Every structure is written in structure tokens, then in C-alpha cells.
Amino acid sequence: MQSDMDVMSIVLTALAIAALGVVIYAAVAVVRLVRRTERVVAHLEQTLPPLLEKIDVAADAVNVELLRIDGIVTDVESVSDTVSSATEVIRTPMEALASLGGRIARAVSRAKRS
How far apart, in whole angstroms, are the C-alpha atoms of residue 79 and residue 72? Predict the structure, then answer.
């Protein structure tokens, strides 16, 4: 019975040492992870503000270009409206001239036949 107790205590001691080893290994892994995370966060704190500033400047530049394009589109619409109006102004006299030309051609054609 005494030897069973001795064996049992040796096994329990070995298991306790193994469990303690696993806990120590896990603690070391957690400490390494925390240190890496701190380095990543420190790096992000250094690089993010300039990057965000560059993004802000780029967005402002895009907005300026969009406003410029909007102005160009507005100008093109204005020119298109002007050309359309001019076409309407020219079309009426041209139709009258074409009609007159047709009448003159028919009159000449009749005169030649007579």
C-alpha cells in the first residue's frame, strides 16, 4: 500500500510539473503576443496620421477636379443649347429657301416645257 502511494505521488508530481510547464509556456506566449501587439500599435500610431493626411489631400484634389469637370460639363451644355438655338434660327429660313428653290425649279421646268 505504501508503494502504491509512492507511485501515485510521483505520478501526481510529474503531472503537476507538466501542467506547470504548459502554464509557463502559455504565459510566455501571451507575453510575446502582447509585446508584438504593442510594436504593431506603435508602428500604426506613427504611420497612420501621415497616411490619413495624404488621403485627405488626395480627396481634396479629387473634389477640385470634379468641380472642374462639372464646370466643363456645364459649359458644354451651354454651348449645346446655343448651337441648338442657332440651328432652330437657321432652319426656318433654310426651309423657306428650300421651298422657294423648289418652286423656282418647278417654274423653270414649266417654262422650258412651254
Answer: 10
Q: Cβ of 100: how many Cβ atoms within 10 Å?
A: 10
For the four alpha carbons of 56, 57, 58 and 61, in that order, the dihedral sign comes to positive
Query: Of all helices (H) and strands (E), which one includes residue 28?
Result: helix 2-113
CA separation for the pair 49, 95 (Å, rounded): 68
Amino acid in position 16: A
The model's pLDDT over 2-23, given as tens digits with 9 standing for 90+, comes to 687 888 999 999 999 999 999 9
Angle (nearest 5°) at CA 33 between 47 and 30: 155
What the block records as the C-alpha cell of 67 is: 468641380
* The three grid cell numbers given for residue 5, joined into one nine-digit string: 502511494
The rounded distance, in Å, linking the Cα atoms of 40 and 47 is 10
Note the pTM of the prediction, 2 decimals. 0.46
The Cα-based distances of 82 to 74, 89, 91, 100 in angstroms read 12, 10, 14, 27
Which of 100, 78, 80, 99 minimizes the C-alpha distance to 88?
A: 80
